[in-house]
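To: structure subgroup
Subject: Chain for Friday's discussion

All,

I'm putting the inputs and outputs inline so they're searchable in the archive.
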Amino acid sequence: MTTRPRILTGDTPTGRLHLGHYVGSLENRIRLQRDHDCYILIANVHAFTTRAQQPEDVRRDTIEIVRDQLAAGVDPSLATFVVQSEIPAIAELTFLLAMLIPFSRVMRNPTLKAEITSKQLGDHYSFGFPLYAVGQCADILAFRADLVPVGEDQAAHVEMTREVARRFAQVYGAEVFPVPEPLFGRVARLPGIDGVEKMSKSRGNAIYLSDSTDEIRRKMARLYTGRQSADEPGDPDNVLFQYARAFLPDPARVEELAAGYARGGMGDAPIKREVADAIDASPMP
């Protein structure tokens, strides 16, 4: 029996994986897979909360995100991929845990509220949509995970899972489930190329792990900084330098660029090209 710490992480198959997935969680999965008991959940059931009329698309994207992770460096001899729909116990546990969480607590989940807003669902979402927040608790607790590598935007889901694990122990007098800890990526929130919103397929602002060299360069060229002229002093903490710090391998080079940018006289374009080339040359697929 393994004594290594156990990881549960995963993705809802809504399309190809992008740079935000990589720096937010995927990078940590690859790094930790050798010395942790690592499970990667493909949450295809959760995808039906907004795509119930598109089962073939969900199936296609389920396969696609596994391909992206294998190409990025997840080793199936070290990590176990789990397709959510193939584990009926997760659905059963979701139903049981729903008895321990007030509906008002689920609806206060800031990540859930943000998704309702970003997907423009208004009041027109299925009952299953808020239920998926309980389902994420079941995803984690079913595997008795100690650690959950996630992007910062998923912190609220992990916190609710921690509450449920404690509540279960309080009600039934047994610590069946470990209280999991989140593990955040080195970049808490990577903006998309619109320079404002979080990188997301639904917002059309993503650079995908599977993008070609030309696609990466073309998308980086569109990265919006709001700067009007190369002569004016630039903000070395703007979205362009968030990308530079995330993907340029030499911190000294980043600071050199930042100093020149802040003085003025340095345009966005050469920095965008350098960052694009660094993304293309990285270990990502």
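Points worth raising on Friday:
The mean pLDDT is 92.
The first helix runs from residue 19 to 32.

D.
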